[in-house]
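Lab meeting prep.
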Amino acid sequence: MRLRTFRILLVLVHVSAACEFGPFPYRVTGIVCRMTKPAALLLNQETAQVIQAAFRNAKFPNITGERSMRLLGKVAYGLTNIQVNDLSIEESEVELKENDAIHIAIKNVTAFFRGTLNYGYAGAWFLQLFHSVDFEIESSIDLQINIKLMCQKDQVAADASDCYLTFHKLTLHLQGDKEPGWLKQLFTDFISFTLKFVLKSEVCNEINFLAQVLAKFVHDLAENFVRDEAISVDISLASVPLIKANYLESHHKGLVLYKNYSDVFTDSVFSPSLLTESRMLYFWLSEHTLNSLASAAFLDRRLELTIGGEELQIFQGTSYNNCVAKVWSLAHPQISVQPEGTVVKSLVAVEVSTLPAGEESLMVLYMEKEITVTIQAAYTEKKLILHPLESRIEFKVFNCTADPSENDPSIRNFLQTMISVVGIPEVISRIEPALTSLMNSKGLHLFEIRNPEIITRKGYIIVQLDFSFPNHLLLDFLQNIELISS
């Protein structure tokens, strides 16, 4: 009952939740995902398990009626407890039909259905004088599914209602084949007409239902990946999903959501020509989305760092274990994506204090500086690597107990060198594991990613990669289906 109620809710959403887009949808596109045909072929290798779930979860209705038999009069019958006992799939093919649908052809599906056949002669049925026998139906089926991608409630949705079953074999086996031959012939003829219709209706309904659940499952997975506590990214659709002969593509707004933070984006530079088709999976990220994430991180007080102990190698004659440095951003960082890398510009404050034993802390250095650093990123061995290429430092405020007059340039030169050589690499070395840990908490480390590349261009970043089949996601999806069914 719960499964059918859930189906009804999905149908109501399907009917009532259309999407509206402006005349220039690409201009509000902050994130793009492109999956090419090689990825679709890889995912299709496990289509069998999803189809098996569709057959297994299909709820076949009881079938009752009457048939007239010469000499015997009327024979009343009922087929009950129909369920799939065994199923195998020999071959599955996928084709992307441009501007139309994802066509999946599943050939030589061998399915065994079992149930109970009740029958009685004229009058005997109503007197409860009937017979009961178990039956098994052996079938060979070809299945064709055309899946259309659309927008519902600003999300990618799937419509697999265009579904066809072709029966090549449908053989009835009664319990031990001990029943009279006329009985087997009677119900074989009946099943050939009625059961084909029932199976097609229920199996195709279940496949359409699973397609809708799968689309929601993928959306929820992506939505969770771009959310951390109070910061999240709006992945609502900016346009209708595309189906091309060699790839599938979805365009998302990519607006950052954080408390009262307001994000608007109307000048995206995205064009489909910016992505190629040589890799399995592509992600396109706008400079605006990255800037907004940095601003949200600043507002959430995440751009703060404390360094202590021997990590501070600045002042000679001072016990490093008694020193603490606090580093924090004073304003929203500015991010500019260029071909040479991602340029980060930030106004940063640094305060260094000593903690003499038994005494109050003493500030020995306070400075505010504008730092501009160019960073190249890579993802290797399931870790994010950030490599600073060049940096520029401009002091804005400088207070140091070693130079109360603030006229000694040697101290500033020394500190500038230390910041470039030690400070920036130290901060980046803290950011790398933090971001890696955050991505792993979303399950990124469970994917077998091959040869990932992070490419920067003026105004955007492209992440392109190949991957092995994500078995853990298939398992999660099938478990999700079982929970809904139960």
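Slide two material, second protein:
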Amino acid sequence: MAAKLYGGAYLSPFVDVVLDNLSSILENDSVLNGNYSSLELLGRLQNCLYDVGPVLDDAELKQFTDKRVKKWLVDLQHALYFADDLLDELSTKSAIAATQRDPGNSSSWSRLVDSYIEDTGDMEKIVGTLESVVRRKNYLRLKESTKVDMSWRIPSTCLVEPSEICGRKEDKEAILKLLLDDDAAADGNLSVIPIVGMGGIGKTTLAQLLYQDDQVKENFDFRGWVCVSEEFDVVKVTKTVIEAITSSSCNLTDLNLLQYDLKEKLSRQKFFIVLDDVWNENYDDWNTLLKPFQKGVKGSKILITTRNKNVSSVVQTVSPHELNLLSDEDCWLVFSKHARLSTVSVENPTLEKIGRDIVKKCDGLPLAAQALGGILRGNSDIRYWNHLLKSEIWELSNDRINVVPALRISYYFLPSYLKQCFVYCSLYPKDYEFSKDELMLLWMAENFLQPVGKKTMEEVGGEYFDELIARSFLQPQYRGK
């Protein structure tokens, strides 16, 4: 089934496998037994693999917006399959020849290996085809060690319009209770409260609602909002916190001076800080960042938003608050507000029916409902609404809708060994429910699981599964008894 998978997520580890097989053959002098033409061909094959590996991440990102890159990945995978089959057959024939080797006659064994190589006229063709495919990366302008384009992202701010928020009343009340509880800290004066959920589910919006709540304003001496995003720089974050609570620029650049200054400003104060869109899960980084915050008055709070449960487990002092998807009705309210449906539906009630069908495609994501509603804002053309209904959300231009890039960021930061496991799940129908054991066995059959120390494959597979849930790529289903 893995043969149906295309893209860098699958090809990156596959290239490594082919390289390992090739290296084993080249390191074994007895396999080719001085057949210099074959050694030259395999050397060219090795160069191709080294050349293509570093650009696969870039190709994986560009395949979503460039059909030529997607076609290139398909061609590359086919070429790699032939190369892998060639190496497997060469190894097998060499092993067979070795069993038939006459210890007293090395030339007879050499002829057995050479006969296979000489009879395989496809060897030159296989290597030549792969070289041709790899050369095309230059025309496609694929780059090494590329970074995902974040230029479309606007840093979050603390401002929000409460009337446009739907379906988060219970979530707000639950976290508000923690924010107003001065005894919420399990140890010391500081409480760290994580909001966890997949991209586009409304974590930042909920944090904005809480930040602007009148009870919160009255409960704390001062508040600060920091959009952390992907680049977790302790110096930068510390400096931004100082600027947020003083409403003035900070010219310090030394971390020691910054932290001392922040500690002095926070001491004997009850503060509320929001760290929005956090990705870093390194304990040492967090331990360093949080040192100045320990000097605040009892009841001080830090609220973080993150897509990754592993982040929350590093910093939390209370259990994380996990956001669920919105109901279709709440999604409809978000959609209709941004589409201004109340003004156009009077002229054509049919739009409401089409709109509700569009909302079902949002799968409970308020970001998707908002973005699609924005596209249709003030538009009463039934044909256009039907066109949007029949379009897949990822076919829409990134200039008009940021849903796909927003979700793609999570995928970009996924480790390669998890990417191929997640991509494998796409072979199954939408909303297909996997059992943990079933998925682990499927991954094991495809050789996706990488051995770690003395852990069994089942243990490794279980960790992969749990990691994908922690990063909100798989949604657990809880059933009542």
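Talking points for slide two:
The beta strands are 190-196, 222-229, 271-278, 300-306, 321-322.
Confidence is low (pLDDT under 50) at residues 1-6.
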